[in-house]
Amino acid sequence: MAIGLTWPNLPDLQAMTDYRPRIPLRIYSEDKVLLAEYGEERRNVMRFNEIPDVMKLAVLAAEDDNFYKHNGVDWSGVGRAVLANITSGAKAQGASTITMQVARNFYLSSEKSFIRKFYELLLTYKIEDTLTKDQILELYLNQIYLGHRAYGFAAAARTYFGVPLSKVSIAQAAILAGVPKAPSRFNPKTNLKRAIERQHYVLGRMLKLNYISQAQYDEAMNEKIQVKSRDNNAAETQFALHGQYVSELARQLMYNIYKDNVYGRGLNVYTTVNSKDQEIAYKAVRDGILTYTRRKPYPGPAAQLELPSGLEQNQEKMEEFLDKVKTDYPDSNDLHTYLVLSASPSKVVAIRDAGHPIELTGTSLNNAKRALVAKPSTKRHIMRGSVIYLQKVKDSWTIINMPEVEGAFVALDPTDGAIKSMIGGFDFNRGDFNRVTQAWRQPGSTFKPFIYAAGLERGLTPETNISDQPFYLSAAKTGSKPWTPKNYGNSYTYSQTLRQGLYKSKNMISIRILEAVGPDFATEFIERFGFDPARHPPKGAYLTMALGAGSVTPLQMASAYAVFANGGYRVNPYIINYVTDPNGTVLMKSQPVKAGDEANRAIDPRTAYIMDDLLRGVARNGTAARTQATLKRPDIGGKTGTTNQSFDAWFAGYTPKMVGVAWLGFDQPRSLGDRETGGGAAMPIWLDYMASVLPSIPVTKQGPLPQGLVKAGDNFYYTEFPAGQAIANLGVGGSGYAPGTEETGAAKPAAQGSGDAIGKLIESFNPLGGPPIRF
């Protein structure tokens, strides 16, 4: 009667026959390397024939070796469980087969009651009657919860070992097969010791059932289990960490489209980022930050703890103490946390794992000499109980502090804006703030090329002679304090050509070009490159724009330099290439704007050509000469940038096929220190990256002169303003300035060579069409 009343009310098996699990959102690189997955459940669904036999056999040995013999219920096992429960007087033991567990996972709770067990038995028979044994086992292997948000053995293999299920060894399979008994207690991340004990039981069962040979058993028992962690050096694990800035940005973009529904749909997002380039960028940023950190005074240990005397003699207590230290002060990749046991000016004894102290002497102490004294008395001194970080350099440990300075790097393809690599900080695990996209910083001299380009479009030439004398604006003129900008090193000449002004990054030249261009045109012009005028100085103080006093992000700067690299076209940076559903059907595909489409033109092609020539000159003979000298290729252009008091260090450089921007600075702006410049602090990051990436990219020769542009010697002329009519001088010829000589500041510009005033000359020239342009 009970069966007759219950059977018609059993749930339909559609959830099993039409199995659609909650599969997480997955982010991949361009070359299909998994970067990250987002969702409450980590899951990889595999077909039965894709699951390795060793995993199937390990599960059968651990859970249900009679699976292919019984009809869903192992009555001998039920009898043993009933006897045990009667004897104990409690419902302490079950006799669940794999089919029963599938029934419970899909439809029932884990409540231990006889009523629930009765439903489970009936549902088990219904499943066995509907599905084949292989189908049931496939569902189990994909559906079972295995701890740490991993559902199914494929996800668990990646979660615990960082390998695909197809690559697991017998020893690893036995570890995984032991987890279902108690996922919270038997998973290797939570308790490796208990997981190995359970593994030994599974291996013993596999041997007894002749699933493996004695030799395989012995090899598996002796295999050392390496659990995936932040310290693991496996390539897949490390890249997953290094791709976090990329994957988090992609996740945010997907969330904006799907909202909360984005998690669990099984969407696969393929980004534009190349995994190898991303790894190179990560190392370049990290090395740049650590190099800067080493040349600054050691600030002292990360913390000073009260370490009881003799605690290291009790290994168990010491291990507990060290576990808390490593939790509170986690590693950062190759920077490892250590606890100091003793310290003197000549030797430091530190420990990371109980029973394994190390001694640091000689050159290992060089970086921290100022913190090693005979009688330590302050928190800046290293002493017993100090928490320090060690890094292995050339097979020797050295003391180094966790960097306070931050950095960022982004590289993109200037032909369409595809982002190829992006590192938004030293360590994503210290905070997910992405400095590539979120840090608004002053660009300093990296902004000057846009001012120079504006000057070219207003009639200047590379050989226009411009006053390099000091510039002055009084308080009456500024409305607040006098403005007396300076050249770097306080060095001045009578005048410089526009070309040499850019090569030498002369502030006075930039200021006079911007003054000649005027605020209205300058504001409109920088907007063509993607800059936000609202984040740059207003008209009343617009001249400070010439020194990079506005705010930009590294990504914005990379996109802007792409205009110089690609011949004058505005391309929008993008990071998602295409998106598929779990079946591989393409749901979305990017359609980026591309260089070459005249609808995307930002500046006159002649201006782009001249600026490319000038910036290649900067990389050959100017402040960025180290780039061409190091990389030995003529198609590099770029510009260094250092802001006032060295708050920000920049380098923006490119070839026609790759743009890269590096930045270094403190999140809370403060000086990087005396003599810290973009060329010394940021350029090495760019060089490290390009030295690895550019060899696979052919050198691109500069193309033919655009129509309407004439070259004469080192100079270029627009056909509208040939030699003899172009602007030859700006602020020179008796009209240069010395501080305090004029309230207006710069010289009254005069066009020499043609005899016409610059206002009249420029009034007739508008390279983009439309009404005449006036000053």
TrEMBL record:
It is found in: Cell inner membrane. Residues 407-657 form the Penicillin-binding protein transpeptidase domain. It is a single-pass type II membrane protein. Residues 34-206 form the Glycosyl transferase family domain. Keywords: Antibiotic resistance, Carboxypeptidase, Cell inner membrane, Cell membrane, Cell shape, Cell wall biogenesis/degradation, Glycosyltransferase, Hydrolase, Membrane, Multifunctional enzyme, Peptidoglycan synthesis, Protease, Signal-anchor, Transferase, Transmembrane, Transmembrane helix. GO terms for cellular component: outer membrane-bounded periplasmic space; plasma membrane. Pathway: Cell wall biogenesis; peptidoglycan biosynthesis; Glycan biosynthesis. Its EC number is 2.4.99.28, 3.4.16.4. In the C-terminal section; belongs to the transpeptidase family. This is Penicillin-binding protein 1A. The lineage of its organism: Bacteria, Pseudomonadati, Pseudomonadota, Betaproteobacteria, Burkholderiales.
